[in-house]
Design a protein that fits this description.
By secondary structure, this protein is of the alpha+beta class. It has one domain. It has a five-stranded antiparallel beta sheet. The radius of gyration is 12 Å and the shape is globular. It starts with a strand and ends with a strand. The mean pLDDT is 97.
């Protein structure tokens, strides 16, 4: 679990996920993240609706969540 810090929004705890469009999104610096509160749902269903898409240009820092 990582703490993802952003330039213009609150930090979130979550995990990056690898989906069918991972390579395409990576080229454009976009990342799918499942927030800590939806991690269990994601693990059981694998629904993309559990994730959110973020632009890597908005990240300021990645740290290990406590």
């Amino acid at each position: 679990m990582l703490c993802i810090h952003f330039k213009n929004r609150e930090s979130i705890n979550g995990v990056f996920i690898f989906t069918n469009d991972y390579e395409e999104l990576k080229k454009k610096n976009f990342w799918r993240i499942v927030a800590e509160g939806r991690k269990d749902e994601w693990q059981s269903t694998k629904k993309l609706a559990c994730s959110r898409l973020f632009s890597g240009t908005e990240f300021t820092r990645l740290t290990e969540a406590s």
